[in-house]
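quick one if you have a minute, typing this from the bus. theres a chain ive been looking at and ive put its sequence and its fold in token form underneath. please have a look and point out which stretches look like helix strand or loop to you. anything you notice is useful, everything is just below.

***
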Amino acid sequence: MQKLSLGQIIKDKNPALEASLPRFVVAMLERLLCLERIDELLEMGEGMAPLEFIEAIFARLDITYEGMWEEEPRRGRYLFAANHPFGGMDGLMLGHCVGRRFGDVRIGVNDLLMTLAPLSPIFLPINKHGRQSGRTSGLFERTFEGDVPIVTFPAGMCSRSARGGVCDMPWSAGFIKRAVAARRDVVPVYVAGTLSRKFYLLARLRKALGIEQNLEMMLLPSELFAQRGSHFKIVFGSPIAWEILASEPTPVAGTMLVREEMERLSAYC
């Protein structure tokens, strides 16, 4: 199995940047991103189906979770809209829970994660560092028009600390537009949990210094491994019919409706 190469990943996205980076910097970043430990997981998962691989990761890290459903899901074409506290573990848990219940799933992710081969069949890539390509845009349209349940994180990036605690970043209204266009009911989902204090401190420092680049994102792999031995709770709300969302005055209003329902679910945790 080919090992992950940060240099190659950067080269594929930005050749000029890759050419300008000293090798010692790339090596340092690879250690920060825990690429060696991720390679070990990928080697373990070679030949596994995606949900089987997620189960193997949970077993390796001694991770457990419980999913609570306000309403037993019936057969339908759902878009699951969740808060994003972890930037990794939440996607694995939701993909596993929804996939096991419905038989299949797609998860909207940063397109850089398509390098994780055992999981790529259930990933729906989103280009976070440029415009969506025609191929990716077409894949989105076909997936939304199909019947497979989809998990999305409308905030686009994991939660940050703010006055009063940790909360999701502003939600984009794009998921409402896609849900209405594809006539998919939306299921709000609340995932309980937070990352380390170090992550939030770096995010606040970066913002205070006026740095636009999402530097704290580089800590997410180590945050994933730091969750070893944890137990998590997920609450699935009642589906909101696409007709109700279509009747809202604007997609932003529909977004607020779903987010408010998501936040209400936190009371179960």
Notes: The radius of gyration is 19 Å.
